[in-house]
Amino acid sequence: MGTPEFAVFSLKAILTTDNQVVGVVTKPDRPLGRGQKVIPSPIKKLAVTLNLPLMQPEKVREEAFINQLIALSPDVIVVVAYGQILPGSILSIPGLGCINLHASLLPEYRGPAPIHRTIINGKDVTGVTIIKMDEGMDTGNILLQREIPVKKDERVSELYQRLAGEGAALLVEALSGLSAGDLRPSPQRSKGVSYAPPLKKDDGLINWSKSGKDILNLIRGLDPIPGAFTHLSGKRLKIFSGFLVGKKEGGKKPGEICEINKKGIKVACGDGCLFLKEVQLENKKRMPIETFLLGIKIESGIILK
């Protein structure tokens, strides 16, 4: 059971083992983007390509869907970024239980956006966890867990790929251990519980009063989607990369453009200045700052809000 690209890594890994995939469950096709074109999920695309049995229930609590699962008689149900919480009526179906791959060191960052929050909050260590699921949100007992360092200046898109690969390998290990009866679930610790709520567009709004490091973490943690942003003359300006320079210039307000040169656009922040290197103005393409400056006139003193 899975939906996004993150889950594709796991399904592919399972298919390289002796385990038999008797069914694949993903969310219904949804309209996406400006054109609202109906697009199948990455997991559906893979399942269709490999001719795997596919189910797309609107809600997992539907009686007809639960009866389908019962008829399949699975030994284990694997859940990776599926998008719905499973009820007890499903959790009790497989003899070995339902297991979930989560992209954090649980109980840290329970919820749907752990990878983004890891980068945004400036963590230098994260990981992947396999749990035996219960009816809570990422609260089940831990089967396996692996720490993974966050690389300096790593973007969420890059960490996403690494955790998907590491998680898929750990998942295969967990399936082997479950089959052999070697794994013993252990309860999650009660201390250090934190949550990673779903991202909203406004989460990307840059507060220029914050430190340059915090702003860069936000930029890295939202690249490419939904993107950190500010406003330039009333238009949304997404920012995808930059670097810190020196101390805050005297008399400059947070968000004030201090300088424009070949290196980029220098903006005052809480404790210094930030050079913007890659941006995207509303209704325009993402581009390096050198290209951006060729098509727009910007002067020092303008304040980004």
In short:
The protein is α+β, with helices and mostly antiparallel strands and 305 residues long. It contains eight helices and 14 strands.
Features:
single chain, 305 residues, alpha+beta, Rossmann fold, Methionyl-tRNA Fmet Formyltransferase, Chain A, domain 2, 2 domains, 6-stranded antiparallel beta sheet, 4-stranded mixed beta sheet, 8 helices, 14 strands
Question: What would your notes on this structure say?
Answer:
The protein has 305 residues and is α+β, with helices and mostly antiparallel strands. It folds into 2 domains: 5-180, Formyl transferase, N-terminal domain (Rossmann fold, 3-Layer(aba) Sandwich); 201-294, Roll (Methionyl-tRNA Fmet Formyltransferase, Chain A, domain 2), CATH 3.10.25. Helices cover 27% and strands 24% of the residues. The protein has helices at residues 5-15, 42-49, 63-72, 88-91, 114-120, 156-180, 212-221, 289-294; strands spanning 24-25, 30-32, 37-39, 54-55, 77-80, 98-102, 125-132, 141-149, 228-232, 235-245, 257-261, 264-268, 273-281, 287-288. Helix 5 packs antiparallel against helix 7 (212-221). The longest helix is centred in the middle third of the chain and has 25 residues, at 156-180. The model has no long low-confidence stretch (mean pLDDT 95).
